[in-house]
Specification:
disordered C terminus; 7-stranded antiparallel beta sheet; 19% helix; 170 residues; 32% strand; alpha+beta; globular; single chain; Thiol Ester Dehydrase, Chain A
Length: 170
């Protein structure tokens, strides 16, 4: 999927595509602002439901990703933090061409859990509210210990995984 034809605000850059689900729902964009990761996207035709507004599943996907993205940034983990529970409230429709971006606020973290809430905001204010719980897996958990398909989140050290591998005598 190409991101060339999509107009995003200049401070955003394309989110790394992992050739999986993210590629199917994108293009997505990201930026760091005040130590928070912000995900954004422009509502395109393939994001629309039969009524002609942004599909709720698309908006929920972006907020689920934004919670995990911010949890990784806040905790310093490199592992994929799977969602355990997410709840969403649809506040108003998002229309074709709207720019939507996440605003995530973490309310509490423990050594293995992260609790977050946030909004997906459009040009006329919030369109979706969410709260959720994500698991913070251990780095040695074979299911989540390494970033999926080698993809690192924006802002992560590209060489972080290499040192870990070099130090491993096995």
């Amino acid at each position: 999927m190409t991101t060339d034809a999509v107009e995003a605000p200049p401070e955003f850059q394309p989110f790394p595509v992992d050739e999986g689900f993210v590629e199917r729902v994108g293009p997505l964009y990201w930026k760091l602002a005040n130590d928070r990761g912000v995900l954004g996207f422009r509502v395109l035709e393939h994001h629309l439901n039969p009524v002609g507004i942004c599909h709720g599943g698309m908006m929920m996907t972006v907020m689920d990703m934004a919670a995990g993205f911010n949890l990784r940034l806040a905790s310093g983990i490199e592992a994929f933090p799977p969602s355990i529970q997410m709840a969403y409230d649809f506040l108003k429709p998002a229309r074709p061409g709207d720019w939507l971006e996440s605003a995530v606020d973490f309310t509490h973290t423990t050594p293995r859990m992260g609790f977050a809430n946030g909004l997906l905001v459009g040009p006329e204010g919030p369109v979706l509210r969410c709260n959720g719980i994500c698991r913070l897996p251990r780095a040695d958990d074979p299911r989540f210990g390494k970033p999926a398909r080698g993809v690192r989140l924006p802002g992560e050290n590209k060489d972080a995984g290499k040192k870990e591998e070099e130090d491993d005598p096995s």
